[in-house]
Design brief:
The structure is a homodimer of 132-residue chains.
Chain A: H1 3-9, H2 16-25, E1 32-33, H3 35-44, H4 51-63, E2 68-69, E3 79-80, E4 86-91, E5 97-101, E6 106-109, E7 117-130
Parallel strand pairs in A: 4-7
Antiparallel strand pairs in A: 1-3, 2-3, 4-5
Chain A binds a DNA duplex (30 and 30 nucleotides) through residues 13-18, 34-36, 49-53, 55-56, 75-77.
DNA sequence: TTTTTACTTTAAAATCGTTCTAAACTACTT
DNA sequence: AAGTAGTTTAGAACGATTTTAAAGTAAAAA
Protein backbone atom coordinates (compact mmCIF):
# COMPACT_ATOMS: atom_id res chain seq x y z
CA UNK A 1 0.00 0.00 0.00
CA UNK A 2 1.40 3.39 -0.92
CA UNK A 3 1.38 6.42 1.34
CA UNK A 4 -1.54 8.11 -0.39
CA UNK A 5 -3.63 5.01 0.23
CA UNK A 6 -2.46 4.81 3.83
CA UNK A 7 -3.68 8.34 4.43
CA UNK A 8 -6.99 7.70 2.73
CA UNK A 9 -7.50 4.48 4.67
CA UNK A 10 -6.89 6.42 7.87
CA UNK A 11 -9.57 8.89 6.83
CA UNK A 12 -7.10 11.70 6.15
CA UNK A 13 -7.02 13.82 3.03
CA UNK A 14 -3.72 13.27 1.27
CA UNK A 15 -2.63 16.91 1.15
CA UNK A 16 0.76 18.00 -0.14
CA UNK A 17 2.00 18.55 3.44
CA UNK A 18 0.75 15.22 4.76
CA UNK A 19 2.37 13.43 1.83
CA UNK A 20 5.73 15.09 2.54
CA UNK A 21 5.54 13.90 6.15
CA UNK A 22 4.25 10.45 5.22
CA UNK A 23 7.11 10.02 2.77
CA UNK A 24 9.62 10.79 5.48
CA UNK A 25 8.03 8.76 8.26
CA UNK A 26 6.24 5.83 6.68
CA UNK A 27 9.10 4.25 4.78
CA UNK A 28 9.50 1.23 7.06
CA UNK A 29 12.52 2.40 9.05
CA UNK A 30 11.60 2.88 12.71
CA UNK A 31 12.70 5.95 14.55
CA UNK A 32 12.06 8.34 17.40
CA UNK A 33 11.72 12.04 16.66
CA UNK A 34 10.37 15.37 17.84
CA UNK A 35 8.37 17.94 15.88
CA UNK A 36 11.52 20.02 15.55
CA UNK A 37 13.59 17.06 14.26
CA UNK A 38 10.97 16.54 11.59
CA UNK A 39 10.90 20.21 10.60
CA UNK A 40 14.67 20.18 10.14
CA UNK A 41 14.40 17.15 7.95
CA UNK A 42 11.62 18.73 5.88
CA UNK A 43 13.72 21.87 5.47
CA UNK A 44 16.82 20.00 4.42
CA UNK A 45 14.79 18.09 1.82
CA UNK A 46 14.12 21.42 0.14
CA UNK A 47 10.56 21.76 1.42
CA UNK A 48 9.20 23.90 4.22
CA UNK A 49 6.24 23.71 6.51
CA UNK A 50 4.76 25.74 9.34
CA UNK A 51 5.45 24.26 12.77
CA UNK A 52 1.70 24.43 13.43
CA UNK A 53 1.09 22.16 10.46
CA UNK A 54 3.70 19.73 11.66
CA UNK A 55 2.13 19.46 15.12
CA UNK A 56 -1.24 19.20 13.48
CA UNK A 57 -0.17 16.36 11.22
CA UNK A 58 1.63 14.48 13.97
CA UNK A 59 -1.44 14.60 16.17
CA UNK A 60 -3.69 13.39 13.35
CA UNK A 61 -1.23 10.64 12.43
CA UNK A 62 -1.06 9.58 16.06
CA UNK A 63 -4.82 9.58 16.53
CA UNK A 64 -5.17 7.42 13.42
CA UNK A 65 -2.52 5.00 14.66
CA UNK A 66 -0.01 5.75 11.90
CA UNK A 67 2.58 6.71 14.54
CA UNK A 68 2.78 6.58 18.34
CA UNK A 69 3.73 9.06 21.01
CA UNK A 70 6.19 7.79 23.61
CA UNK A 71 5.40 8.10 27.33
CA UNK A 72 8.42 9.92 28.65
CA UNK A 73 8.91 12.78 31.05
CA UNK A 74 11.07 14.74 28.62
CA UNK A 75 10.00 18.34 28.12
CA UNK A 76 9.51 17.74 24.38
CA UNK A 77 7.02 15.32 22.86
CA UNK A 78 8.70 12.28 21.29
CA UNK A 79 7.01 10.36 18.52
CA UNK A 80 7.75 6.88 17.26
CA UNK A 81 7.10 5.30 13.89
CA UNK A 82 7.09 1.84 15.43
CA UNK A 83 3.39 1.26 16.07
CA UNK A 84 3.71 -2.32 17.29
CA UNK A 85 3.48 -2.82 21.04
CA UNK A 86 7.04 -2.52 22.22
CA UNK A 87 9.18 -1.13 25.00
CA UNK A 88 12.13 1.20 25.51
CA UNK A 89 15.47 1.64 27.14
CA UNK A 90 15.98 5.22 28.28
CA UNK A 91 19.48 6.67 28.64
CA UNK A 92 18.71 8.93 31.58
CA UNK A 93 21.69 11.14 30.84
CA UNK A 94 21.02 11.95 27.20
CA UNK A 95 17.29 11.15 26.98
CA UNK A 96 17.96 8.80 24.08
CA UNK A 97 15.41 6.00 23.60
CA UNK A 98 16.24 2.54 22.27
CA UNK A 99 13.52 0.14 21.16
CA UNK A 100 12.96 -3.17 22.89
CA UNK A 101 10.90 -5.56 20.82
CA UNK A 102 7.83 -6.96 22.51
CA UNK A 103 9.16 -10.53 22.63
CA UNK A 104 12.21 -9.42 24.58
CA UNK A 105 10.07 -8.82 27.65
CA UNK A 106 7.71 -11.22 29.30
CA UNK A 107 5.28 -9.96 31.89
CA UNK A 108 4.50 -12.95 33.97
CA UNK A 109 2.12 -11.47 36.47
CA UNK A 110 -0.08 -8.46 35.95
CA UNK A 111 -2.25 -6.70 38.53
CA UNK A 112 -6.01 -6.75 38.33
CA UNK A 113 -7.35 -3.96 36.10
CA UNK A 114 -9.47 -1.49 38.09
CA UNK A 115 -13.26 -1.89 37.75
CA UNK A 116 -14.79 -0.11 34.80
CA UNK A 117 -11.53 0.02 32.86
CA UNK A 118 -9.82 -2.08 30.26
CA UNK A 119 -6.14 -2.55 29.57
CA UNK A 120 -5.23 -0.43 26.55
CA UNK A 121 -1.51 -1.14 26.42
CA UNK A 122 1.48 -1.92 28.59
CA UNK A 123 4.72 0.01 28.29
CA UNK A 124 7.90 -1.02 30.02
CA UNK A 125 10.68 1.52 30.41
CA UNK A 126 14.11 0.32 31.48
CA UNK A 127 16.17 3.26 32.67
CA UNK A 128 19.88 3.08 32.00
CA UNK A 129 22.85 4.60 33.79
CA UNK A 130 26.35 4.65 32.35
CA UNK A 131 28.50 2.00 33.94
CA UNK A 132 31.28 3.35 36.17
CA UNK B 1 14.31 10.38 61.65
CA UNK B 2 12.66 13.80 61.52
CA UNK B 3 12.43 15.96 58.42
CA UNK B 4 15.25 18.27 59.41
CA UNK B 5 17.54 15.26 59.69
CA UNK B 6 16.28 13.89 56.39
CA UNK B 7 17.24 17.13 54.66
CA UNK B 8 20.63 17.27 56.33
CA UNK B 9 21.33 13.63 55.46
CA UNK B 10 20.49 14.43 51.86
CA UNK B 11 23.02 17.27 51.96
CA UNK B 12 20.37 19.99 51.83
CA UNK B 13 20.23 22.99 54.16
CA UNK B 14 17.01 22.80 56.13
CA UNK B 15 15.66 26.22 55.16
CA UNK B 16 12.24 27.41 56.22
CA UNK B 17 10.86 26.78 52.73
CA UNK B 18 12.32 23.28 52.43
CA UNK B 19 10.91 22.39 55.83
CA UNK B 20 7.43 23.53 54.81
CA UNK B 21 7.59 21.31 51.74
CA UNK B 22 9.16 18.39 53.63
CA UNK B 23 6.40 18.58 56.22
CA UNK B 24 3.79 18.33 53.52
CA UNK B 25 5.45 15.64 51.42
CA UNK B 26 7.46 13.45 53.75
CA UNK B 27 4.75 12.37 56.15
CA UNK B 28 4.50 8.79 54.97
CA UNK B 29 1.33 9.11 52.87
CA UNK B 30 2.14 8.48 49.21
CA UNK B 31 0.78 10.75 46.53
CA UNK B 32 1.21 12.16 43.06
CA UNK B 33 1.31 15.92 42.60
CA UNK B 34 2.39 18.77 40.36
CA UNK B 35 4.27 21.93 41.37
CA UNK B 36 0.99 23.83 41.17
CA UNK B 37 -0.83 21.30 43.40
CA UNK B 38 1.86 21.79 45.99
CA UNK B 39 1.69 25.57 45.80
CA UNK B 40 -2.06 25.47 46.41
CA UNK B 41 -1.52 23.27 49.42
CA UNK B 42 1.17 25.59 50.77
CA UNK B 43 -1.13 28.56 50.28
CA UNK B 44 -4.06 26.92 51.99
CA UNK B 45 -1.85 26.01 54.95
CA UNK B 46 -1.38 29.75 55.49
CA UNK B 47 2.12 29.91 54.02
CA UNK B 48 3.25 31.16 50.66
CA UNK B 49 6.16 30.46 48.41
CA UNK B 50 7.40 31.57 45.01
CA UNK B 51 6.75 29.06 42.25
CA UNK B 52 10.46 29.27 41.40
CA UNK B 53 11.33 28.06 44.89
CA UNK B 54 8.87 25.23 44.60
CA UNK B 55 10.39 24.01 41.35
CA UNK B 56 13.81 24.47 42.85
CA UNK B 57 13.00 22.41 45.92
CA UNK B 58 11.27 19.65 43.96
CA UNK B 59 14.29 19.27 41.69
CA UNK B 60 16.66 19.13 44.65
CA UNK B 61 14.44 16.66 46.50
CA UNK B 62 14.24 14.52 43.39
CA UNK B 63 17.98 14.61 42.78
CA UNK B 64 18.55 13.53 46.39
CA UNK B 65 16.05 10.68 46.07
CA UNK B 66 13.57 12.13 48.57
CA UNK B 67 10.86 12.05 45.90
CA UNK B 68 10.57 10.71 42.35
CA UNK B 69 9.40 12.17 39.09
CA UNK B 70 7.00 10.01 37.12
CA UNK B 71 7.72 9.15 33.49
CA UNK B 72 4.62 10.33 31.69
CA UNK B 73 4.00 12.29 28.54
CA UNK B 74 1.70 14.77 30.28
CA UNK B 75 2.53 18.42 29.64
CA UNK B 76 3.02 19.06 33.38
CA UNK B 77 5.67 17.35 35.52
CA UNK B 78 4.21 14.86 38.00
CA UNK B 79 6.10 14.01 41.17
CA UNK B 80 5.60 11.06 43.48
CA UNK B 81 6.43 10.67 47.15
CA UNK B 82 6.61 6.90 46.76
CA UNK B 83 10.32 6.34 46.18
CA UNK B 84 10.18 2.54 46.20
CA UNK B 85 10.32 0.90 42.81
CA UNK B 86 6.73 0.63 41.72
CA UNK B 87 4.50 0.96 38.69
CA UNK B 88 1.44 2.84 37.51
CA UNK B 89 -1.90 2.58 35.88
CA UNK B 90 -2.61 5.61 33.68
CA UNK B 91 -6.15 6.68 32.95
CA UNK B 92 -5.51 7.94 29.44
CA UNK B 93 -8.59 10.13 29.47
CA UNK B 94 -7.98 12.06 32.68
CA UNK B 95 -4.24 11.58 33.12
CA UNK B 96 -4.78 10.19 36.61
CA UNK B 97 -2.08 7.82 37.89
CA UNK B 98 -2.73 4.92 40.25
CA UNK B 99 0.11 3.14 42.01
CA UNK B 100 0.84 -0.51 41.40
CA UNK B 101 3.03 -2.03 44.07
CA UNK B 102 6.17 -3.72 42.84
CA UNK B 103 5.02 -7.21 43.88
CA UNK B 104 1.91 -6.92 41.74
CA UNK B 105 4.00 -7.22 38.61
CA UNK B 106 6.47 -9.90 37.73
CA UNK B 107 8.84 -9.39 34.87
CA UNK B 108 9.79 -12.83 33.82
CA UNK B 109 12.14 -12.11 30.99
CA UNK B 110 14.18 -8.97 30.53
CA UNK B 111 16.29 -7.98 27.53
CA UNK B 112 20.04 -7.76 27.70
CA UNK B 113 21.21 -4.38 28.94
CA UNK B 114 23.24 -2.54 26.26
CA UNK B 115 27.04 -2.64 26.68
CA UNK B 116 28.44 0.05 28.94
CA UNK B 117 25.16 0.62 30.74
CA UNK B 118 23.55 -0.66 33.87
CA UNK B 119 19.87 -1.04 34.71
CA UNK B 120 18.83 1.84 36.92
CA UNK B 121 15.16 1.01 37.30
CA UNK B 122 12.22 -0.55 35.50
CA UNK B 123 8.89 1.21 35.20
CA UNK B 124 5.78 -0.44 33.90
CA UNK B 125 2.88 1.69 32.76
CA UNK B 126 -0.48 0.06 32.15
CA UNK B 127 -2.67 2.36 30.13
CA UNK B 128 -6.38 2.22 30.85
CA UNK B 129 -9.41 2.95 28.69
CA UNK B 130 -12.92 3.27 30.11
CA UNK B 131 -14.93 0.16 29.43
CA UNK B 132 -17.76 0.62 26.91
C1' DT C 1 29.78 37.16 68.87
C1' DT C 2 30.69 39.24 64.66
C1' DT C 3 32.16 38.60 60.09
C1' DT C 4 32.44 36.19 56.06
C1' DT C 5 31.07 33.00 52.75
C1' DA C 6 28.32 30.27 50.11
C1' DC C 7 23.84 29.00 49.40
C1' DT C 8 18.85 30.19 48.96
C1' DT C 9 14.70 32.71 47.93
C1' DT C 10 12.15 35.90 45.26
C1' DA C 11 9.37 38.49 41.69
C1' DA C 12 9.59 39.36 37.34
C1' DA C 13 11.28 38.55 32.86
C1' DA C 14 12.57 35.21 29.58
C1' DT C 15 12.29 30.87 27.29
C1' DC C 16 10.48 26.89 25.22
C1' DG C 17 7.23 23.71 23.42
C1' DT C 18 2.71 23.68 21.93
C1' DT C 19 -1.95 25.42 20.71
C1' DC C 20 -5.06 28.93 18.97
C1' DT C 21 -6.79 32.31 15.68
C1' DA C 22 -8.64 33.78 11.67
C1' DA C 23 -7.67 34.50 7.00
C1' DA C 24 -6.18 32.34 2.74
C1' DC C 25 -6.07 28.10 0.37
C1' DT C 26 -7.25 23.46 -1.59
C1' DA C 27 -9.31 18.81 -2.09
C1' DC C 28 -13.34 16.85 -2.96
C1' DT C 29 -18.47 16.84 -4.06
C1' DT C 30 -22.26 18.62 -6.54
C1' DA D 1 -17.89 25.53 -12.45
C1' DA D 2 -19.51 26.40 -7.91
C1' DG D 3 -19.98 25.14 -3.30
C1' DT D 4 -18.39 23.28 1.08
C1' DA D 5 -15.77 21.36 4.32
C1' DG D 6 -11.36 20.48 5.64
C1' DT D 7 -6.41 22.32 5.75
C1' DT D 8 -2.45 25.36 6.03
C1' DT D 9 -0.31 29.41 7.65
C1' DA D 10 2.12 33.20 10.30
C1' DG D 11 1.91 35.09 14.19
C1' DA D 12 -0.14 35.72 18.62
C1' DA D 13 -1.17 33.47 22.82
C1' DC D 14 -0.55 30.16 26.31
C1' DG D 15 1.22 27.43 30.14
C1' DA D 16 4.96 25.19 32.35
C1' DT D 17 9.45 25.86 33.62
C1' DT D 18 13.94 28.32 34.00
C1' DT D 19 16.74 32.36 34.40
C1' DT D 20 18.08 36.70 36.34
C1' DA D 21 19.88 39.53 39.64
C1' DA D 22 19.11 41.45 43.94
C1' DA D 23 17.97 40.68 48.75
C1' DG D 24 17.99 37.35 52.43
C1' DT D 25 19.73 33.50 55.44
C1' DA D 26 22.33 29.42 57.28
C1' DA D 27 26.60 27.79 58.46
C1' DA D 28 31.61 28.38 58.91
C1' DA D 29 35.47 31.15 60.20
C1' DA D 30 37.50 34.49 62.90
Amino acid sequence: MNNKEKLRNAGLRPTKQRMIIANILLNGVNRHFTAENLQNEINSSGNSMSIATIYNCLKKFRNCGLIKQVESSKETAIFDTNINQHHHFLDEETGELIDIENEEINLFKLPEIPKGYMNSGVEVLIKLKRQI
